[in-house]
Amino acid sequence: MAKFPYSRVLQFNFEDALASEVSKIKGSDIVALAKRIHANTIVVFARDAWGRAYFNSSTTRKHSKLKGRDFLRELVEEAKKHGIHVIAMIGHTTNPELYKKHPDWAQRRADGSVITMDTDPLEVEGPMRWPLMCLNSPFLDVVAREAEEVLEYGVDGVFLDSFRYMPDAERACFCDYCVEKYRRENGVELPKTANWESEAYRRSFLWRYMVNVNAIKKIREVAQAKRSEAILVYNSHPLGWKGRASRIVELARNYIDVVFAECSEADYQPPGFIAEMVKLSLAVSGGKPIWASRNSFHACLTSTVTTPVAIRQGLREAFVAGGYPLYLVFSTAFANEPRVNRGVAQVYRELEKLEEYMEDTEPLRYAAVLFSNRSRDWGGKDRPDHVTDSFRGFYYALTWRRLPVTYICDTDLDEAKLEGFKVIVLANAYSLSRRAVKAVADFSEKGGVIASYLTSIMDEQGNFMEEFGLSEVLGVSYEGVIEAPWSYVKVTESHEVFGDLKEGSLILWGDFDREFIDSRVPAGIANHARVSLLNEAKALARVVAPRTSFGYEYENGRSPP
Question: 85-90 and 367-371 as β-strands: parallel, antiparallel, unpaired?
């Protein structure tokens, strides 16, 4: 890990609709907190999600409670006195202020309704609060001007929040700007319905990814034209938005200097989640510096603080995984919760001493799990979590066995960047390119390969093939899919892969649906690839079909047959 100056980060946001604490908080107060906790970098909203500026902007209305004050200038000037870096957060895609002036710049569904970031209870339809602006509209020019303006203050770089321009049918934009641009660039109309079997639909899916990539590229070019040494930070939120943001980072890696792995789900994810997101982000970004967040609060309880141990361990996780910790504090907690610096100062003091020992280090290479963004998109379709859970399941299984494990991405496999690994795990990696297939074949000559279910049954464009691309490597030929609500795997030959399970043991394959709304079991969870063996390949187990669709005890309809 090379020397990196932005290694202990404090992020401060005004989060509420009124920004009610803004008149009480000075820029110097935030710098004082950064000093107390030993942070060397501050990230701060220059323009918030409500569309208000915290500096004297020519494009955006300044928050009225600031009156004659310039909060960003206060903070930058005080930070410079203490050698603390400042990164200005801009470009939040929600912007109610701008929407009021230019409603035609908003993202819109095919029916014309506005796409928002609002989250209401399932059976409640509240008023629109946060309309999302479209990257193909003049909104992007406003973001570019925001970047230019804040760089005039001498900040070290700009931080783009997730653009939230998504390819999924329920969130895909069909505003006039998108429709006209797609027609101009592709010579056809933008597909309005999701049809995963259609190459035209999959091309439009990729086009929407590239809208994000080109927007990131534009803001980087604007920022560096203004100040050549300015860095660009992008919030990927690796598992947010169905995990699509990870593919944006993989495609835009050449235009991003620092990836922010937002880990706001940490309080309801497995232990080690922050470390996992660092490793994932390192993979998809090609090894760019990763900021990983530990919020000061638990889950969504932003006005209070969580336990010191949660804060300490979360920040340490980011560091030990090869990233840099970011501690997020919202203004309400900053103003009213004296415990807000509890826990973090201890860790940042530790890291201040330890950072030099992490310079130029590399993770121990043993097991590599392929986190295939292509497979999640093309194989997962409308339920990408079913594929993502395969990657993550293997990652945690290996982690909890205390084996060195990290992620690699499609680009790594395409480029055969597998040096030093002993084993690669292709967990339901539907979509592999020809280059990836060759890389795996070459690797298998000297290393181990674990592959599951329909690995390599699709090409990189998502076309379903009649045979596995890795058929010869795996020693099997594709014969179709065994579909069942539940199934079993029967061990037919003892082998170390089964541990203590002896010949004749049955392994349950499946689970009941935890939502239990429209299905008794999760779709496809008990399915298997039907294969025939090639050459010297040996089967160690067989699939056993159940007698009935479900059992009757302990709970009727939820137990296995």
Answer: unpaired
